[in-house]
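Shipment paperwork, digital attachment
Item: protein structure file
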Amino acid sequence: MTRGSNPEQKLLSAADLYLRPQPLIRLDDVTRIFPGPPAVNALRGIDLTVDPGEYLAIVGPSGSGKSTMLNTLGLLDRPSTGTYWFEGVDVSSLSEDARAEIRGGEIGFVFQSFHLLPTRTVLENVMLATAYAGVPRQDRERLAHGALARVDMSHRTDFYPGTLSGGEKQRVAIARAVSTSPRLLLADEPTGNLDQTNSQGVMALFEELSEDGLTIVMITHDPVVAKSARRRASIHDGRLTELD
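Attachment content:
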């Protein structure tokens, strides 16, 4: 034994390392190249780790690679090179069926344009996500009601999207995204079609969801919106840089 060493301390350190939760997301040297001519390097050597419960905003201008980043994280696209680990599983090499199963059950999506079906009620729109995730039929309505209550939209369950304000539509979209209790929420310009008041309301809701332990990665062009996240990174020309 060397002078000053402490076997018990070493044991505790090893135990702490073992008990430390694994990252929810880990990207190792990920690239995405779209064939040309000319070829487009949308992502260049991305290294990223996101732990469970983190709220990360990735900010960048149009054409910076942020949409490709979201599509990669959401298993809508595959890296050209590199590895994407989701909850310790190398999802970059899984079959499309396996990726779809993870996407449906573990990842929720919120988009700028809401993507609500105009001929379905608010409740029915939210229930669609539970159906896609394979939730048993008898549980779908209960989960949808719970998600709508979480975003303060219980009073609009029988309304149709065309009768809602932009802020209400986005709240319904968020309810749909969280109705299956996903491990990860991906938001693509979630305030892009909203005025300032409704934008602030949506950002406050994201903060509440984050405080409840939901992992959120938000893509935005707006640095002001990005400031609502506890962690921020910028993307330019396909390269990701952590911000202070």
